[in-house]
Specification:
heterodimer, A: 522 residues, alpha/beta, four-stranded parallel β-sheet, 21 helices, 52% helix, globular, B: 401 residues, Rossmann fold, 2 domains, 14 helices, 8 strands, 51% helix
Chain lengths: 522, 401
């Protein structure tokens, strides 16, 4: 417990309305503080080691790209998610987040190595570009499993997705830019931000061709149309899995579409699909999916272990960003899974660390407030045991059977982040929630009410009606994904506070976290 | 100009989705299939024994119930349809050919489905969710063919005995083409410098073909065509500028009236519920089954911004520019139903690309579902028409010099 009732000191004192960073670091006891600080140091040393050799490009990049600057504050992102944590929980979070940042730093390095905007006429950079496929954020690069000699960079994930989760204000400039361009301000800010990066010409030029998709929502579809304009001269392929993903009949089309994507990359890059490499990478994907399921299984018990954003963000980046091909992520995954089992045995044996309340998080979350679930746990004792964002493709890819493997790969695309729930009809979004409530034994759902999302919003009333019938507490938390000016973090907390106070008649575990100002913080 | 003989008749038919001709056709034993989107090939819903009704919600005011179920940021068209369904206005339908094309439309249909807003205890009723592909290649054609066969044609046959054989589809296309031919001929008049038909009148006629059983409007349409052929336009041009309207659903002729009341003449209707695309004859050959041809035609002719493969995006810009030229339009109004994501993007891009790359004068607006009385909209259109006039005057001066 980080709150001291005697002194009245709680975690809220670390936030300061006038500063971006925490006022000071949390004292977690000698052992945990040393561990925490050690990880902090290690992250910056790692960044320095990997990006230091590209210092000229980094400086140029920061002057050229607004989205690059937030990466410097990556450690603060980890701090936000580890505040108030101790012991094994702290270690889970650090390991999970470091694996995400490890991948991101490597990708930033790759951008620095080959970006045409930063490397002038460098032949070396050009050669690297000619061997690289660019991807869109909402398009998992799993297809690269069969192209071991090629590199790939998710340009939108690196310039929009990740920075938006590191610094809450990182997208504001781009949102304004695209609205100035003429886009209605009521659309989802995520694809809007991606378009904003395009109209301000802030995408790095790092590859020879571009692979995008039709997923997972109307905004993402339209963002593709704008990107086709922006990337004039670059050939583009749009992977378009079917919408009604639950129907077996549509899978044939999905596989045909995927084969076309493979052909496109083969033709563009002059290489052939390599089945041996694919099997190896598919094996890795299967192992990572297995780790995910084990985490779910443990979290379904009375003693959940890897919770909140540590669970969701890691899976999101492992699948969407790294396409389950990052060896370091797999290593971390196996390590955390092992620690988690040990932690579960300990807790269940002693009957400790049972959460006061259990909840799951549903619908698209606020990128600018990824630690909201951590806050709910610290302030109200409501622990998030699973998150819709983590419930993406987890079924294994069949090894050895080529046609079946392609069907499985197509299924991975159909069941990627968001799309697994927003496509395929209401059963995947509405009915699935009640199944998950049963499976994870929860009666509270943090229902993210993304104010610009027509997809989840379209079932708003049915969610309400059905939750009431089932006695489930849906706590609607409004947000605007990338734009904290529409709904601030403080307003998000306020919505949750009101429910806990008025409906549950609860007292906060840490009253200093009830209301504080953090509009300026990263 | 003298009023069209049947204009009032057609206007009256647009007052209610369950209009007199719909009731007549049902009384004669035909079944009514509702649909909302171009992506559900209309001609296949007009097989012998059934007819299509493109769903509208005329005179919508409050959308409170739909707003509760779909949230206030959902497309107003989708919400208006749900509201009207919850009020029971679509209980005359025997089936709905829904499409999973945009989020709002899809969720609207799901709400109707779950709450049985189409009417309870209708044993044979079915509602489909067609998976519409994002492009127009042959894989997409095959995919849509499977979807339509399984989700629409098969249940139509099994539940209502509707024949969907190749002969039956060819007959439907033949009948459909008759209506298209009349509308196309009427539309051609709009290319004239002083057309004998206004944009409002044309839109009312076109809308009637979407909202009524086609066989029951054909004779009066043909009569109207003959009337327009003979009609003498006013000697003085009444309009100040010719405009093309491009965008999302306009099923309320009041909006076209509003635009024309400001002094414009709407000469081309490149929007959902308009005639381009939608009222072009479907050419069929003997070498291939009719179903495949119909689907291919539909996928190739759609102008929906949902299709965002590079060549489809380009096709939309080029089509808009071509239509501008064909109809001698002075400018284009890109309109978007409020909260329509697809058209939000398309409109923003058009506002930038069309003037710069095609030299088109563009007004970009978003609008509520029922927009005929919008003073704000009227002011914006007026300003645009004035700007077109000034440009024409300036161009004239330039030429004179």
């Amino acid at each position: 417990m980080a709150y001291d009732p005697k002194t009245g000191k709680g975690l809220g004192r670390f936030y300061d309305a006038d500063h971006r960073a925490f006022k000071f670091r949390e004292w977690k006891g000698l052992k945990d503080t040393l561990y925490d600080y050690g990880r902090w140091m290690y992250l910056y040393c790692f960044m320095a080691a990997k990006l230091g050799p590209y210092a000229p490009q980094m400086v140029k990049g920061m002057l050229r790209y607004r989205w690059l600057v937030p990466y410097l504050t990556a450690a603060n992102m980890v701090d936000r998610h580890t505040i108030g944590q101790r012991g094994k929980e702290l270690q889970y979070s650090h390991k999970q987040f470091f694996s995400v940042l490890h991948h991101s730093v490597i990708k930033v390095k790759e951008i620095m190595q080959r970006d045409a905007n930063l490397n002038g006429n460098s032949k070396k950079a050009e050669a690297l570009r000619n061997n690289t496929v660019m991807f869109d954020e909402m398009t998992p690069s799993l297809i690269m499993m069969g192209f071991p000699t090629l590199d790939w960079i998710d340009i939108a994930m690196m310039s929009v997705g990740m920075p938006s989760e590191v610094d809450q204000n990182s997208c504001v400039y781009y949102i304004d830019a695209i609205e100035h361009f003429g886009l209605a301000p009521d659309v989802c800010p995520e694809p809007a931000t991606e378009c904003g990066v395009a109209v301000t010409d802030d995408y790095p030029r790092v590859g020879k061709c571009y692979v995008t998709s039709s997923m997972p929502c109307d905004g993402a579809v339209q963002q593709t149309a704008l990107m086709t304009r922006y990337l004039k001269g670059v050939d583009i392929f749009q992977i378009t899995p079917p919408q009604r993903i639950n129907e077996p009949e549509v899978q044939e089309y999905a596989v045909k579409n995927l084969k076309k994507a493979i052909k496109f990359i083969e033709d563009e890059m002059g290489v052939k699909w390599d089945w041996d490499a694919f099997w190896k990478n598919a094996e890795m994907y299967n192992q990572m999916a297995e780790c995910m399921i084990e985490k779910w299984d443990v979290n379904a018990t009375d003693y959940p272990q890897v919770c909140g954003a540590a669970l969701a963000l890691q899976r999101e980046f492992e699948f969407m960003g790294a396409a389950c091909m990052d060896k370091y992520m797999l290593k971390t995954d196996l390590e955390v899974t092992k620690m988690m089992h040990k932690g579960y045995e300990h807790d269940s044996k002693l009957g400790v660390n049972k959460p006061k309340y259990r909840c799951i998080v549903w619908a698209c979350p606020a990128h600018y407030y990824t630690n909201f679930a951590n806050w709910a746990d610290l302030c109200w004792g409501v622990r998030c045991v699973n998150d819709m964002e983590a419930m993406l493709s987890y079924l294994p890819i069949t090894i050895g059977d080529k046609e079946q493997a392609l069907k499985d790969l197509a299924r991975c695309y159909e069941r990627m982040m968001m799309r697994s729930h927003t496509n395929g009809g209401y059963v995947n979004l509405l009915d699935e929630l009640w199944k998950m409530c049963d499976r994870f034994n929860v009666n509270i759902v943090i229902m993210y009410d993304h104010v610009s999302c027509r997809n989840v919003g379209g079932l708003h009333g049915l969610f309400e009606d059905e939750a009431r019938k089932r006695g489930i507490h849906l706590i609607w938390v409004p947000h605007d994904v990338m734009d904290p000016r529409t709904v601030s973090r403080r307003e998000m907390r306020d919505a949750f506070n009101k429910y806990m106070i008025n409906v549950f008649r609860e007292e906060p575990l840490d009253p200093t976290l009830l209301d504080y100002e953090d509009n300026l913080s990263w | 100009m003298k009023d069209l003989k049947y204009l009032k008749y057609f206007e009256d038919l647009l007052e209610d989705a369950d209009n007199a001709l719909v009731r007549q056709a049902e009384a004669e034993g035909d079944i009514a299939v509702g649909y909302t989107c171009f992506h559900a090939p209309e001609v296949l819903l007009n097989l012998p024994g059934c007819f299509s009704v493109r769903l509208r919600a005329p005179h919508t005011t409050s959308m409170e119930m739909a707003t509760y179920y779909m949230a206030n940021n959902s497309c107003e068209y989708a919400r208006a349809i749900l509201e009207r369904a919850l009020e029971g206005n679509y209980s005359f339908l025997h089936a709905i050919a829904g499409v999973d094309v945009c989020e709002a439309n899809n969720r609207c249909m799901e709400n109707i489905d779950i709450m049985q807003a189409h009417g309870k205890d209708k044993d044979k009723f079915f509602l489909s969710y067609l998976d519409i592909p994002y492009s127009d290649d042959e894989d997409c054609v095959e995919h849509l063919k499977e979807q339509l066969t399984r989700k629409v044609l098969k249940p139509l046959g099994e539940r209502y005995g509707i024949d969907s054989s190749d002969d039956s589809i060819r007959k439907a296309v033949e009948d459909f083409n008759k209506v298209c031919r009349v509308i196309t001929q009427l539309g051609e008049f709009r290319k004239l410098p002083n057309p004998p038909i206004t944009g409002y009148e044309f839109h009312v006629l076109t809308l009637a073909t979407y909202a009524c059983p086609k066989r029951l409007v054909l004779d009066k349409l043909q009569e109207t065509l003959e009337e327009v052929k003979r009609r003498v336009p006013d000697t003085d041009k009444k309009y100040r500028a010719r405009v093309m309207v491009i965008g999302s659903e306009i099923d309320d002729p009041g909006l076209i009236k509003l635009i024309e009341d400001t002094g414009a003449l709407v000469v081309a209707d490149r929007f959902c519920f308009g005639s381009i695309p939608g009222r072009q004859e479907i050419p069929l050959t003997d070498g291939e089954d009719a179903l495949t041809q119909v689907i291919r035609f539909n996928l190739k002719s759609t102008q929906c911004p949902r299709q965002c493969a590079q060549h489809r995006v380009q096709n939309r810009w080029d089509t808009a520019a071509r239509l501008m030229k064909e109809y001698s339009a002075d400018g284009a109004i890109y309109e978007q139903m409020k909260f329509c994501t697809y058209w939000s993007y398309e409109r923003a891009m058009a506002g930038y690309i069309m003037p710069r790359e095609y030299g088109m004068h563009v007004l970009s607006i978003d609008r509520p579902y029922i927009a005929g009385q919008s003073g704000q909209l009227r002011t914006r259109v007026q300003a645009f028409i004035e700007s077109l006039e000034i440009k024409k005057i300036n161009e004239g001066k330039g030429e004179a010099k």
